[in-house]
Amino acid sequence: MNEEATVYLIEDDDAVRDSLQLVLESVGYKVDAHSRADSFLERFSPALAGCIVLDIRMPGMNGMELQRQLNNRNSILPIIFVTGHGDVPMAVEAMQRGAVDFVQKPYREEELLNKIQQAIAADVEARAALMEKQQIRQKLEELTPRERQVMELMIEGKANKVIAYDLDISQRTVEIHRARVMEKMAVRSLAHLVRMVMAAQDDN
User: Fold this and answer.
1) CATH of 6-127, one of 3.30.540.10, 3.40.50.2300, 3.50.30.40, 2.60.40.640
2) 0.85 cut: is pTM over it?
3) Phi, psi of 78 (to 5 degrees)
C-alpha cells in the first residue's frame, strides 16, 4: 500500500462515516474524514494523494458540486461516489465528469474496499505519469532555441543534411546540436526522443 495515499471520506451521516472510517483504518488505510464537502475543499491541495469516497447527497455543498469545484482546480484525485438508489442517474453523470466509480447504499464493505484499492492504484499511476511529463518538460526547457529547432526537425525524420539546408547551417553544426539534444534529453535513440516529446505534449 502507498504510505502517502489517504482515503478522503466525505459523508454527512456521522454513524456511517465513523463506521466506514473504522473499517478502512482496520485494513491499514490512512483516513481523513469530513462531514461537509466545503470542509474538505478548504484543505484541498493538488499534492494530496489517494482517493475520495464521496456521498452524493449532503446538505450545503453536495457531492456533485464538490466534484465540479475539484475539476476547476485541476484535481486528479479519483472519486468514488456513494449513492442511494434514486441517485444512480446523478452518479452516471458524475462518472461522465471524471469520477472513477460509484457504489449504491447499502453496499458491501468488500466491494467498496476493492474499488478504493483500484482507485488508489490508478492515482499512483497517474501521478507517476504526471511527474514523468513534468521532468520531460523541464528537460525541453533546457534546450536552446536552435537545439529546439534541430530537435523538431529530427522528430520529423529529416536527415542531418536536410536539417542543415533548412536552417542554413553546416551539417557539422547540426551534428553538434543533435548530440546536445540527445544528451540533454538523456536518450539514446530517436524513437525514445519521439516518445518523450509526445508524452510531454499529451494533455489527456
Assistant:
1) 3.40.50.2300
2) no
3) -65, 140
Minimal CA–CA distance to 34: which of 67, 49, 12? Answer: 12
Q: Is 77 exposed, middle or buried (0-12, 13-18, 19+ CB in 10 A)?
A: buried
10 φ, ψ to 5°? -125, 105
Angle between helices 190-201 and 145-155 (to 10 degrees): 110
For residue range 78-106, list pLDDT tens digits in order: 999 988 766 777 778 888 888 888 888 88
CA–CA dist 56, 97 (Å, integer): 14
For 75, the grid coordinates are 484535481
Indicate the helix (H) or strand (E) that contains 203.
none
